[in-house]
């Protein structure tokens, strides 16, 4: 209570002052009156004598009434503010640099918080898991069914499967993005429909009349918030589907890391065939689905995993068919349960660490620069410090004063940083190479404010401690004389340049590494000709999507025929996965009669003119013909890498592979194309004829030198003449598809590049100012040497030697750090590249040039001065 | 007044003030100083320089309470009043003081 009053009094100095004055004034008046009554002469003088030093008395009374340390701290803070205003340029610079450093850290913190701390908007979110096969494949519907039957640790199991659908019926057919789910999907996430209802169990049975649930966004944007939407019929994939519900506005479950490449427009129930045989996702069979489940109350992740392991063992023992012709080791097949949050964050984890590393290093450099500026300022204040010490300020009090001044700067920077951090976080999320609903939910809250204040305080300690220790030391003689001890703290200055050089070299070499990676990726040969090829995607609005449909190939071929008839079209073809886009299938392949255990090969279903359309060279054998058609696979074409793997070359023609039953004959070999955007290593690939087997979801490629806009119109018309319900989407020139295929490496380069350039600019400026300051300190010495006959060259050499030692030490440290962190950066950015020595050389050169210029300019000035004048200046 | 002598007086000053207020009435600083001088037959002349800081310190310690009131001649003045804690403190200091005084007397008689 008493403390509280004293605490409040700190902030009411005027009131306290008035009370003390009133009390003492009253006393003096009473005394004066009584003296006068007694007739004493010189009464006023007597009053003054008795009162003694009024100033000291008041000071003592005030000290009794306030929390002393707080009051003096406030005084120091006020002093700090006054100093800030005294040289506004330097203060503004410091605050700006700190705002950048602290704001960057605060922004990354809100992202980390969104990724790892903030509540996921689902019921029992901490107990939700997603299940994958232990080799990373996501399970099939049949695997989901088996796990649901066998599990003893999981409950509420559900799945989601994302796909394109056509919405037709009014105007040009459009393609929408849909999720097919089980009825348990919404209850598992704890979501109710805002209007209508969610799915019921029976709706997952095959051959039920189609129904759909709309997302709020779709309902508003496409259906104009139609109030009578329930019961309305939408034409989905050529079939009427009844709208039974609309989801609440806050509900989103469309994380790209969980397979939803785009925001979901609507949900439909997934028909689950109960009679389908057991299929393994790793074999490219069945429909892979994103399986979700909740751990039962009290069950740990470990228990759930061992339970899943048991299930996998049972499945592997009971079903040998998913592993035809392969020696199967049941231990190699299992399931993993991954906490939902973990799965949603996915590989964005490494991006977050990269960001954190970048902003962390920037803040360190900002602190080093601030320390330099403060050190210079604190040494300029030698006289003030000497006077204060002489008046009784203890060293501790002086140190505290410096630290508090640092705190004022850091908090100003921190508050400015906090103001921009929300905006910075939004910008970062916006420029991310992939959509991230999780990070987009990042926001500044109490925890972010707390974090910002904490790092502001810590940085204040980091950058103010050396200036405080150095500045608070004084020696009576020189400090009070006009000549300040400017040599103080030189070693710290030099050590700090070394640190700054090291940190920025570290970032620069990281930037060099990711740039090298990007260059490697975009300069690697493509293996095909992307010029003059128009690419688009389409999905046939019919067919059982679970299996390749023989009708699909014929339908696609009829589109292709119409398109090839357009004048100016050289060739057209369909493919399930063009170069640099993910393949739709793949699996282990063996050559019959060979001792080779086989290899994993991607497979693509192509129409006959595919190789001609993309300009992929046919190296041996033949391409597919129209006659390679039928209900069973009979022929395949492999790439050069495939043949190389089996040590065959062109002799691969005529060999049989166990791709299906009966075996398939290899009829051709083509050049290897870049399959994956992020790797240059070639993969074995197989092509099969889409007239024998085709998914209904394909890319359509058209080679023509006609202008794309006009061509697209005619292609659309050609397709519509066959099937007016067909929507096409994702229209792009093949060139652009190639250019857009490396967004992550490009982003890494931009991101680390920006960090590195900022760091280099800050460190360069810091180094320049410090080195030139150190050299100009030696003006007098240089003048004497010149007077004694030293040559300009010799002086330059001496001066240079003193500073470049530190810069070189910093460079060496930075290069070592960059080298040591190379492995981390490679793993964080999925890079295989190694930065070339040239990168390091450029980085080192930059700092050496900065050093030379910083030494040379002041040294030249010093050597040109008249020695007498220079000495007088000292 | 030298630093040392002032500190010597501190304990005594507290005791004198508390004793003066122990009668129960509220008094302002000037009255307290006058009363102490009167009672001690002008032996203790209380310096205002030490009285007021001491009053404020004891106020913060909770031995006395202060409030602003109109004085006899209708001026605003700060009045001090002893608290229960103050009385306990007084009793303690009084016994300590008399023990010290007794001891001093014994030593002096012996001499």
- Count helical runs of chain A: 28
The strand line-up of the biggest sheet of chain B is: 1-3-2
Helix content of chain B: 55-70%
**Number of self-contained structural domains of chain A:** 4
- SSE ordering of chain B: HEHHEEH
| Average of the residue pLDDT scores of chain A | 84
Helical fraction of chain A: 40-55%
Total strands of chain B: 3
* Total of domains of chain B: 1
- End-to-end gap of chain B: 31 Å
Quaternary assembly: heterodimer
* Main sheet makeup of chain A: 7 strands, mixed
Strand content of chain B: 5-15%
Global Rg of chain B:
15 Å
Index terms:
A: 874 residues, alpha+beta, 4 domains, six-stranded mixed beta barrel, 28 helices, elongated, B: 111 residues, three-stranded antiparallel beta sheet
Report on the architecture of this protein.
The complex is a heterodimer of chains A (874) and B (111). Chain A starts with a helix and ends with a helix. Chain A folds into four domains: 2-66, no CATH class; 135-333, no CATH class; 349-481 and 490-521 and 744-873, no CATH class; 542-726, no CATH class. Residues 324-328 of chain A have low confidence and may be disordered. Helix content of chain A is 53%, strand content 14%. The radius of gyration of chain A is 38 Å and the shape is elongated. By secondary structure, chain A is α+β, with helices and mostly antiparallel strands. Chain A is built from 28 helices and 21 strands. In chain A, helix 6 runs antiparallel to helix 16. Chain B is an alpha+beta fold and 111 residues long. Chain B has a single domain, classed as Orthogonal Bundle (Arc Repressor Mutant, subunit A). Chain B contains four helices and three strands, in the order αβααββα. In chain B, strands 1-3-2 form a three-stranded antiparallel sheet. Chain B is globular, with a radius of gyration of 15 Å. Residues 1-8 of chain B have low confidence and may be disordered.
């Amino acid at each position: 209570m008493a403390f509280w009053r004293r605490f409040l009094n700190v902030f009411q100095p005027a009131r306290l002052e008035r009370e003390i004055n009133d009390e003492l004034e009253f006393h003096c008046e009473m005394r004066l009156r009584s003296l006068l009554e007694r007739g004493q002469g010189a009464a006023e003088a007597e009053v003054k004598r008795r009162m003694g030093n009024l100033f000291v008395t008041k000071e003592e009374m005030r000290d009794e009434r306030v929390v002393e340390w707080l009051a003096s701290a406030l005084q120091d803070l006020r002093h700090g503010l006054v100093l800030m205003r005294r040289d506004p340029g330097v203060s503004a610079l410091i605050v700006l640099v700190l705002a950048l450093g602290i704001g960057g850290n605060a922004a990354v913190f809100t992202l980390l918080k969104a990724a790892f701390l903030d509540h996921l908007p689902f019921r029992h979110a901490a107990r939700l898991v997603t299940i994958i096969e232990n080799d990373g494949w996501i399970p099939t519907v049949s695997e989901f069914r088996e796990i649901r039957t066998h599990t003893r640790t999981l409950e509420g199991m559900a799945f989601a499967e994302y796909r394109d659908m056509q919405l037709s019926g009014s105007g040009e057919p459009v393609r929408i993005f849909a999720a097919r789910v089980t009825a348990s999907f919404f209850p598992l996430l704890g979501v109710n429909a805002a209007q209508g209802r969610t799915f019921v169990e029976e709706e997952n049975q095959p051959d039920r009349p189609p129904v759909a649930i709309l997302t709020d966004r779709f309902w508003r944007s496409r259906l104009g918030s139609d109030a009578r939407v329930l019961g309305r019929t939408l034409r989905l994939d050529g079939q009427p589907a009844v709208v039974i519900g609309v989801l609440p506005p806050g509900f989103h479950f469309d994380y790209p890391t969980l397979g939803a490449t785009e925001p979901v427009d609507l949900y439909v129930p997934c028909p689950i065939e109960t009679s389908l045989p057991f299929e393994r996702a790793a074999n490219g069979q069945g429909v892979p689905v994103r399986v979700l489940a909740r751990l039962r109350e009290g069950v740990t992740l470990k228990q759930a995993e061992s339970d899943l392991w048991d299930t996998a063992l049972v499945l592997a023992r009971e079903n040998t068919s998913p592993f035809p012709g392969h020696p199967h080791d049941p231990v190699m097949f299992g399931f993993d349960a991954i906490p939902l949050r973990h799965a949603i964050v996915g590989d964005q984890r490494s991006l977050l660490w990269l960001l954190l590393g970048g902003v962390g290093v920037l803040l360190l450099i900002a602190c080093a620069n601030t320390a330099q500026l403060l050190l210079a300022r604190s040494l300029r204040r030698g006289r003030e410090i000497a006077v204060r010490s002489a008046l009784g300020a203890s060293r501790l009090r002086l140190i505290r004063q410096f630290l508090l001044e640092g705190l004022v700067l850091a908090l100003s920077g921190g508050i400015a940083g906090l103001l921009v951090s929300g905006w910075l976080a939004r910008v970062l999320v916006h420029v991310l190479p992939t959509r991230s609903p999780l990070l987009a939910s990042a926001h500044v809250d109490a925890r972010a404010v707390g974090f910002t204040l904490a790092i502001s305080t810590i940085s204040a300690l980091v950058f103010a401690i050396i200036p405080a220790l150095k500045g608070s030391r004084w020696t009576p003689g020189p400090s009070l004389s006009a000549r300040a001890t400017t040599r103080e703290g030189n070693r710290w200055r030099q050590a700090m340049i070394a640190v700054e050089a090291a940190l920025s070299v570290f970032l620069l070499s990281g930037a060099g590494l990711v740039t090298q990676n990007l260059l490697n990726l975009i300069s690697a040969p493509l293996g095909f000709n992307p010029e003059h090829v128009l690419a688009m995607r389409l999905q046939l609005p019919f067919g059982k999507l679970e299996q390749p449909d023989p009708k699909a190939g014929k339908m696609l071929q009829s589109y292709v025929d119409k398109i090839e008839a357009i004048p100016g079209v050289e060739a057209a073809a369909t493919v399930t996965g063009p170069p640099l886009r993910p393949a739709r299938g793949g699996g282990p392949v063996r050559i019959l009669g060979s001792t080779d255990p086989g290899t994993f090969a991607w497979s693509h279903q192509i129409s006959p003119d595919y190789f001609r359309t993309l300009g992929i060279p046919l190296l041996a054998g033949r391409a597919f013909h129209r006659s390679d058609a039928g209900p069973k696979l009979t022929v395949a074409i492999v790439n050069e890498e495939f043949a190389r793997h089996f040590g065959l070359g062109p002799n691969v023609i005529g060999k049989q592979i166990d791709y299906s039953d009966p075996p398939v004959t290899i009829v051709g070999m083509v050049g290897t194309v870049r399959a994956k955007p992020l790797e240059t290593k070639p993969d074995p690939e197989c092509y099969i004829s889409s007239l024998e087997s085709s998914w209904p979801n394909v890319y359509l490629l058209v080679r023509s030198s006609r202008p794309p806009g006009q061509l697209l119109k005619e292609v659309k018309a050609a397709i519509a003449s066959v099937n007016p319900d067909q929507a096409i989407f994702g229209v792009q020139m093949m060139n652009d598809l190639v250019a857009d295929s490396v967004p992550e490496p490009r982003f890494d380069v931009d991101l680390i590049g920006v960090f590195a350039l900022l760091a280099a600019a800050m460190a360069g400026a810091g180094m320049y100012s410090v080195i030139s300051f150190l050299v100009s300190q030696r003006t007098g010495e240089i003048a004497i040497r010149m007077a004694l006959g030293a040559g300009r060259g010799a002086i330059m050499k001496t001066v240079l030697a003193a500073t470049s030692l530190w810069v070189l030490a910093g460079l060496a440290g930075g290069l070592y750090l960059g080298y040591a962190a190379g492995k981390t950066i490679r793993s964080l950015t999925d890079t295989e590249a190694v930065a070339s020595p040239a990168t390091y050389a450029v980085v080192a050169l930059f700092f050496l040039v900065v050093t030379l210029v910083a030494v040379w300019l002041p040294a030249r000035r010093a050597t040109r001065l008249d020695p007498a004048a220079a000495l007088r200046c000292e | 007044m030298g630093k040392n002598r002032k500190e010597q007086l501190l304990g005594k000053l507290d005791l004198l003030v508390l004793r003066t207020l122990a009668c129960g009435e509220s008094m302002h600083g000037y009255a307290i100083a006058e009363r102490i001088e009167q009672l001690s037959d002008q032996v203790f002349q209380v310096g205002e320089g030490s009285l007021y800081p001491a009053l404020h310190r004891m106020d913060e310690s909770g031995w006395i309470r202060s409030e602003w009131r109109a004085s006899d001649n209708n001026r605003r003045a700060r009045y001090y009043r002893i608290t229960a804690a103050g009385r306990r403190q007084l009793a303690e200091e009084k016994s300590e003081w008399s023990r010290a005084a007794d001891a001093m007397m014994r030593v002096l008689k012996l001499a």
